[in-house]
Amino acid sequence: MVAEAGYFAIEILVVAFAGGAIGAAIGGMAALGLSGLVIVVGEVANAATGAATGSAGAIGLTSQIGYGPALGPHVAFAGGVAAAAYLGRHEEPDSFPYHRAKDIFTPNGARVDALLAGGAFGVIGYWLAALVRTFALPVDPVMASVLVSGLLARIAFGYPLVGSISEGLLDMSPYERGEIRTALEGHDEADPTRLAVEPWVPHQQRWLQQALLGIVVGVFGAYVTYVTQRYYLVFGLAMATLTITVAGVDRFPIVHHIAFPAGIAALSMPAMGIEVALALGAGFGLASAVIAEFSGRILYAHADTHVDPPAFAIVVTTLVIGLLTAAGIFEQGLIPAF
What we know:
Shape: globular
Order of helices and strands: HHHHHHHHHHHHH
Number of strands: 0
Number of helices: 13
Oligomer: single chain
Strand content: under 5%
Helix content: 55-70%
Radius of gyration: 19 Å
Largest sheet: none
């Protein structure tokens, strides 16, 4: 199993480097969508055989590819994030409206320096997830790795850890007014084009939008998970829809961080029935949506690189689920480790 491969299994490190480089080549968001597609296929196959994900009898598409060292978000998506951060030091944005270092949508192709940066952070992402598993931290190890990896990329490529913060840290109205930054940290001259505030998803950045989206996607995610008894299926579906966003469809919602904890929570009190499962899904979906927006305003909107708000939300919500499990309130707890 991948979880048992250790920190220095050469074959896994080579795969992680390749996965990170692929994420850099196709772009982080495309890598995340591809991961979701593989997870969906893997979970449908596991459902057909009746095997639990990560078990000896399971097909390894989810555990070893889609959420593992080949295409897992901590490897491929993190590689794309790191490559964008690196290239932000060397290029100006083309069609992307924000700082170049945040551009996880544009493929970087076969550019050697981007591939090397992505590959290196693919290995780092694998190590970070393995470290979380080693210490048995009660959070999703993959998304914890994505979060930490994004912060490490800022440090590695010389960006401020938090960003240029002024008054109104949570205020998105400067974006709506089209206000431009008057100065950037580390630059003598003002940037005549960069927005003062850069929301992580402009079309769903209002609190009420996030709340309603959290509830409806949370209920949907809980229902799908309760019916199929598959923690990863609705998560994979939600990530797979990111391919629609990559294709250039405007205003398509980003919801994988809502569906995942909602699904986990839905299976955490199995004796209580579907009504409780749906209520837990709605509650955790709402919480995760709001947490993601909050983290986007803190860690993304004023900064220069991409630190993933969905990963932050999944880390917080799975931590809550882990603590409730430790307290004996939830029975099934976190998703199986693999």
